UniProtKB/TrEMBL annotation:
It catalyses: L-histidine = trans-urocanate + NH4(+). This is Histidine ammonia-lyase. GO terms for cellular component: cytoplasm. GO terms for biological process: L-histidine catabolic process. It comes from the Bacteria. The keyword rRNA processing does not apply. CDD domains: PAL-HAL. Pfam families: Lyase_aromatic (PF00221). Keywords: Histidine metabolism, Lyase. Pathway: Amino-acid degradation; L-histidine degradation into L-glutamate; N-formimidoyl-L-glutamate from L-histidine: step 1/3. The keyword Lyase applies. One of its GO terms (molecular function) is histidine ammonia-lyase activity.
């Protein structure tokens, strides 16, 4: 879906939930959110159970008791509003740099989705205020550290809840920061016509007890990886052309029938189509003494295909979590208020870590193809480092260093966060998922992969140019035309960083995929 469509789209919050596309639309494209009347009525009806329980003698966690290890303390009626305020203020204890705006918007939207489900026991005004803050373009400042991925993303969500109360720290639509060191957040809300919320029983807990941050980052990572894996097939195919590799290993009869992993067949099909009509590939079909290409070329569909299948498994987990109602305690359909452990982030944390492995390995094989193009001993006649005048010029020598550094960083980020657990809350919360940390490192790994593919793109394009007068296939020619619009071809050494940054922009914008598809139709 195009950004233009997403920007004007309205997303409806109902008790039946939302889609992954809704999350992306709100997080990245500021789609407006509305709450269905049915959802507001359900929320109000369920709230009646909480009001009844709040006025009874039965102790209820988060309603008439303290939290965590303090859950055994009974809180009198006249202190319960203060209980909710204290919960949010104390839990908004994050530190470090502010996380990205899109992460905060995804976090808030997913929490609003759960609040609108009618299973949390909040009043309609609470979910409506959260939606109003989103629609006003107000973004709470959420810090990098504070969530352990269990009992929900407590600190990140608390920073958001604090803004609903007219406190904390937030940025306005124009990027102006409101908070302790400047104008108060209550003034920012007032500018948007939003009244701060005075939290009642259970509402503070309902605002912060979810896996929304890690889920939001998972959904965005999946969307990014789907695009990058298609681009990885394109850059791999261009490297095959540049290295005078064969396209015969990508024939369909070698994949779906012999090894029926759907991702592998999809990647092989992409590469075969990108290479179709290539005069470079055709030039060495006869008389070439090489029997087989190196693994980084020949096995590209196996690696990228396995990555595709892993992403789709992660999407299955993400959609299940998207259909969940995460809170503790939760209001069941029969009115019972029951404690549970659904806030534990393990299901999400595991696939976040899994995807970091995927991103690192696809980056790794791309770097190996780049290195092969720069080495005259393995590049089938290309000049050293694809330099204009090797020795005088260094060509792309250090671009590969940058690529190697990115791959090394991604390998470090592939170490799972979810195998760690540090007990908290006086041993009441004695096993946690670290899902937030898995999500944060995955975002960096996805960014690294994009940059690695950008370097491969620049190298493959140079290699193809150096095969002139032989020409690439229509897809390769279309990709080179887009790249050459802002990144020059082979020649004397020049300031390289801006060119690599521009290639990164083209990869990230989808321009490279769109160029290839303009020649061969939609890619998998």
């Amino acid at each position: 879906m195009s950004a233009e469509v997403l920007e004007t789209r309205e997303v409806l919050l109902s008790s039946s939930g939302v889609t992954a596309e809704d999350v992306i639309a709100v997080a990245r494209h500021d789609a407006k959110v509305t709450i269905s009347q049915e959802a507001l009525e359900t929320v109000a009806k369920v709230r009646a159970h909480i009001d009844k329980l709040a006025h009874s003698d039965v102790p209820a966690y988060g309603i008439s008791t303290g939290f965590g290890a303090l859950a055994n303390r009974h809180i009198p009626m006249d202190m319960r509003t203060q209980l909710q305020k204290s919960l949010i203020r104390s839990h908004a204890a994050g530190m470090g740099p502010a996380v990205e705006r899109e992460v905060v918007r995804a976090l808030m939207f997913l929490r609003a989705k759960t609040l609108a489900s009618g299973r949390t026991g909040i009043r309609p005004v609470v979910v409506q205020t959260m939606v109003d803050v989103l629609n006003a373009g107000i973004t709470p400042v959420v810090r990098e550290f504070g969530s352990l991925g269990c009992s929900g993303d407590l600190a990140p969500l608390s920073h958001c809840a604090l803004v609903l109360m007219g406190e904390g720290e937030a940025t306005g639509p124009d990027g102006t920061v409101f908070g302790p060191s400047g104008r108060p957040v209550s003034e920012l809300l007032a500018q948007a016509g939003i009244e701060p919320v005075l939290l009642a029983e259970k509402e503070g807990l309902a605002l912060i007890n979810g896996t929304d941050g890690m889920l939001g980052m998972l959904l965005m990572a999946i969307a990014d990886l789907r695009e990058l894996l298609a681009t990885a097939d394109i850059t791999a195919a261009l490297s095959v052309e540049g290295l005078l590799g064969t396209d015969q290993v990508f024939l369909p009869e070698l994949h779906a029938a012999l090894r029926p992993h759907p991702g592998q067949a999809a990647s092989a099909d992409n590469m075969l189509r990108v290479l179709s009509g290539s005069a470079i590939v055709a030039s060495h079909r006869v008389g070439d003494s090489r029997v087989q290409d190196a693994y980084s070329l020949r096995c590209a569909p196996q690696v990228a295909g396995a990555a595709r299948d892993t992403v789709e498994y992660a999407y299955l987990v993400a959609t299940r979590e998207l259909a969940a109602t995460i809170d503790n305690p939760v209001v069941l359909p029969d009115g019972r208020v029951s404690s549970n452990g659904n806030f534990h982030g393990a299901p999400v944390a595991y696939v976040l870590d899994f995807l970091a492995i995927v991103a690192a390995d696809v980056a790794s094989i791309a770097e190996r193809r780049t290195d092969r193009m720069l080495d005259p001993a393995r590049s089938q006649g290309l000049p050293a480092f694809l330099a204009g005048d090797p020795g005088v010029d260094s060509g792309l020598m250090i671009a590969q260093y940058t690529q190697a550094g990115l791959v090394s960083d991604s390998k470090r980020l592939a170490v799972p966060a979810s195998v760690d657990s540090i007990p908290s809350s006086a041993m009441q919360e004695d096993h946690v998922s670290m899902g937030w940390h898995a999500a944060r490192k995955l975002r960096q790994s996805v960014q690294n992969l994009r940059r690695v593919l950008a370097v491969e793109l620049v190298a493959a394009a140079r290699a193809i140019d150096m095969r002139a007068p032989l020409q690439p296939g229509p897809a390769g020619a279309a990709v080179l035309a887009v790249l050459r619009g802002s990144v020059d071809g082979p020649g004397a050494d020049r300031f390289l960083s801006p060119e690599l940054q521009e290639a990164d922009r083209l990869v990230g914008s989808g321009a490279i995929r769109a160029a290839a598809e303009s020649a061969v139709g939609p890619l998998n």
